[in-house]
Amino acid sequence: MAVNLYASYKNWRKYRETYSELMRLSNRELTDLGIVRADVNRVARQAAGY
Questions:
Q1: C-alpha to C-alpha distances, 18 to 1, 2, 6, nearest whole angstrom
Q2: Buried b (16+ CB within 10 A) or exposed e, 22-38
Q3: Cα(first)–Cα(last) distance of the chain, in Å?
Q4: 2-24 and 40-48 helices cross at what angle (nearest 10)?
Q5: Cβ neighbours of residue 45 closer than 8 Å, sequence gap 6 or more
Q6: Domain residues of the chain, as ranges?
Q7: Chain segment 6-50, per-residue pLDDT in tens
Q8: Contact 50, 19 (CB under 8 A)
C-alpha cells in the first residue's frame, strides 16, 4: 500500500510540475510546441501517466 501511495504522489507531482511549467508559457510559446492553452491539462495528465 505504501508503494502505491508513493507512486500516486509521484504521478501527482509530475502532473503539477508539468501543468505549472506549461501555464507559465505564452500562447506563442505553446503554439511553437504544437499545444493550445486548452490542451495543457490533457498534456500534463499524459506526461504524468494518467
A1: 26, 24, 18
A2: beeeeeeebeeeebeee
A3: 19
A4: 150
A5: 15
A6: 2-48
A7: 999 999 999 999 999 999 999 999 999 999 999 999 999 999 998
A8: no
* Residue 32 grid coordinates: 511553437
Alpha carbon distance 37, 26 (integer Å):
9
pTM, entire model: 0.86
> Under the phi-then-psi rule, with left for phi > 0, alpha for psi from -120 to 50, and beta for the rest, what region is 49?
left
> Which residue reads 498534456 in cell numbers?
43
